[in-house]
Amino acid sequence: MNKKIIISILVSFFVMIFYSCEKQAGPVLEIAKSASITEPTSGGTYVLSDTDADNIFANFKWTAAEYNVAISVSYSLEVDLKSDNFANPVVLGTTDADSLEITVFDFNKILTNTLGLEENVAAEISIRVGSFGADSEKTYSDAIDMTVTPYAPPNAPDSLFVISGGVVIAKILPVDEDGNYEGYAWLPASDLTFIISEDRDGTVFYGDNEPDDVLDLNGSNIVVAAEGHYKINVNTFDMSYTAIAQAWGIIGSAVSPYDWTVDIDMAYLVSEGVWQISTDTLANPIITGEFKFRPNDSWDPLNYGDDGADGIPDEYGANIAISAGNYKITLDLREYPYSYTVMPIAK
After folding, report:
1. Which CATH architecture has domain 248-344?
2. CA–CA distance from 168 to each of 96, 206, 240, 246 (Å)?
3. Please, which of 39, 92, 231, 293 could form a disulfide with 61 given CB 3.0 to 4.6 Å?
4. What residues in the chain have per-residue pLDDT under 70?
5. pTM, whole model, 2 decimals?
6. Amino acid 150: pLDDT
7. How far apart are CA 22 and CA 241, in angstroms?
8. How far apart are CA 129 and CA 143, in angstroms?
């Protein structure tokens, strides 16, 4: 057969395949009708109050977005200063439904802590809803406007300090955006008292007058029962706190008796502020297997594994793999996020 004829046939064949594939491809996803906010209506004026913090500020509702093909649609409710025209929108929440409730507390927290509105000053804001599918760009509704006056934002300092005998003994840090702070402090038998301060100098500090596990501004020293390493949790939104003594150990299939039933105690090194164990001093060796850290010979209310195998302990995390050998295992709880190391001991 003539070479030119063969080439012509092949070209025609690939052209047919190309157009056949194009023809079989699905339609391009396009928005047919954007969502539209129906409640609340635009133009409202609201004065927020901390006495209503637990109440629902609004149940935002909207009509469903429509696309040219059937897809699962998700929504994000966004807010910004009206004058900024959504140059830097803040997400109030996301949902797969066509409505979203938000409490007065959460709305006020976002307006003051995130959007930066001044307390007790009226401000004009805009709210819109964005719709999106798995493979689609986000499209937006028309915005509704409102005038809102927020109250003082919830207290959320960058850190808190544990002070005992006039000396900072620990720094506790936020672990989420809900006012929760966490840290550990060693309290010696010589001074079993402490206060919580917003600064290193104890200028703004909290104690507990009753005591009732709720912090009081300029309150009395908090007293613990005995010397120990205490896990201290504080919520600056409701000013609740706990201080629980914890002594750490390791347990697992790699640790004698190799069946997750008995802990091997770690030692707290006061000068270094860490928990540590050298397994070459144990009566029975570490074997290939897994282990976890847990306090007070108990799984609850806390134990640490490691979900990412990254040396950062996770609450109720995955078992930590280890090979047979001798190790210096160190758990460092001085500052959140915590860390641990498993270092081989040279023979």
Report:
1. Sandwich (2.60)
2. 47, 14, 21, 20
3. 39
4. 1-28
5. 0.72
6. 97
7. 64
8. 8
Strand partners, 45: 147
Element (H, E) at 13: helix 3-24
249-254-260-265 Cα dihedral, nearest 10 degrees: -20
Cβ-Cβ contacts under 8 Å for 59 (sequence gap 6 or more): 39, 99, 100, 101
**Res 23: pLDDT:** 45
Domain range 31-149, its CATH number among 3.60.21.10, 3.40.50.1220, 2.50.20.10, 2.60.40.10: 2.60.40.10
Dig out the tokens for 96 from the structure. Answer: 């797969």
Residue 295 tokens, joined = 């306090």
Token reading at 17: 């395949």
Contacts of residue 299, defined as CB under 8 A and 6 or more positions apart, other chains included, come to none
DSSP 111: I
User: Hey, what's the torsion of the CAs at 141, 145, 146, 148, to 10 degrees?
Assistant: 80
pLDDT digits (tens, 9 = 90+) for 13-41: 554 544 444 444 556 677 888 999 999 99
Q: Which long-range contacts (C-beta less than 8 Å, at least 24 apart) are formed by 334-337?
A: 334/170, 334/184, 334/273, 334/274, 335/171, 335/173, 335/183, 336/172, 336/173, 336/175, 336/182, 336/183, 337/312
Paired tokens of 248? 């750490």
